[in-house]
Amino acid sequence: MLKVAIVGASGYTGIELLRILYCHPEVAVTCVTSERSAGKPIAGIFPTVRGRCNYILENLDPARVAAKADFIFTALPHKAAMEVVPSFLKLGKKVVDLSADYRFRSHEEYAAWYEPHLNPVLLKKAVYGLPEIRREKIRKADLIANPGCYPTSVILGLAPLLKKGMINLTSVIADSKSGVSGAGRGAKVDSLFCEVHNGFKAYGVATHRHTPEIEQELSLLAGKKMTISFTPHLIPIDRGILSTIYAQLTGAFTTAEILKVYNDFYQGESFVRILPEGDFPSTRHVQGSNFCDIGLVSDQRTGRVVVVSAIDNLVKGASGQAVQNMNIMNGFPENTGLETLPFFP
Question: In the annotation, is 23 catalytic?
């Protein structure tokens, strides 16, 4: 059994990791940490695991955590992750980091959108952990930068078109909506029930920190520098992301022709479902699962393609994808522990 630690287990992504790993046949969770809840049983923080997970949350001491576990998930805020990840690597542990701290290739770019990086040399070591795109590099990596939730939905939605050169690279617009859990579990006025319920708003317009992450990965797929217009929105649901992506086509491609490109590109992928012509995704149909559902249409009137992708922001957008990466890094079947079907209603 692979002994695993969840560093930062008292947040939404931390408990989602524990939920998934509890049923993983190759894994034993041996350590869970939380700075704000150290000494408390995790079942007292999350009653959903009562009677099944009897862990006591610990303070974060990298040496002590590393003595208990072979593999580390860091589900910490930005900056907090880069303060401890180097210690785990020096102690010979493999790490999947769920923060943004190692997603950028350029420390200058990270500093422009976040803050100065504490260990920029590790940016060259980290592998961006989108399995459908980077599987072979993930297999050999010691440090995985788990992608952001919005970027996962947009990159998977556009990858086939970019690899085939089917869209104008200057024309991409991504309009994304997320449930409130994407803001994390900390108390914030903008996430309060009365602030969110019966409302629908854009935020981070032209300034959202996921923008350079999306552009970095799309540029690598396209083979040249790309910029996009990306606008996220907050919707009054618990979980889920729906991204609607628009781009100008480079030819008179039909919907059927584009769908064939997508089905060929994602053939054999366990967690990307390409919907038939005329069908489009819903967040409701991916809740609790590691699926990314994609539907699209070629708008003959405007010459644009409209791609719609849906994920659960806490699973394929965070913890499920992190476990998918762990499976690849350790030689387990990639879908191990992740075959849970979406829940409905």
Answer: no
For the chain, list residues with pLDDT below 70.
none
Identify the active-site residue in 31, 53, 149, 292: 149
Prediction pTM value: 0.96
Q: Where are the beta strands (DSSP E) in the chain?
A: 2-7, 27-33, 71-74, 94-97, 127-128, 143-145, 173-178, 201-202, 229-234, 241-248, 272-274, 292-299, 304-311
The C-alpha atoms of residue 316 and residue 319 are separated, in whole angstroms, by 7
Nearest alpha carbon to residue 15 among 98, 71, 89, 84: 98
120 and 205 part of one domain: no
Query: How far apart, in Å, do the first and last CA atoms of the chain sit?
Result: 35
Within this chain, do residues 119 and 158 fall inside the same structural domain, yes or no?
no
The verdict on residue 328 lying in a domain is no
Residue 41: give the domain boundaries: 2-125
Annotate 245-263 with DSSP letters as a single string. Answer: EEEEBSS---HHHHHHHHH
**216 and 228 Cβ atoms separated by less than 8 Å:** no
Burial class from Cβ neighbours inside 10 Å (0-12, 13-18, 19+) for residue 209 reads: middle
Same domain (yes/no): 117, 166 = no
Tell the residue number behind the tokens 């919005």, with chain if given: 150
Regarding whether 154 and 118 lie in a shared domain, the answer is no
Q: How far is 250 from 303, CA to CA, in rounded Å?
A: 8
Q: How many domains does the chain have?
A: 2
- Within a domain: residue 133? no
In a domain, 339, yes or no: no
What is the residue type of 217?
Answer: E
pLDDT in tens, 33-62: 998 899 999 999 999 999 999 999 999 999
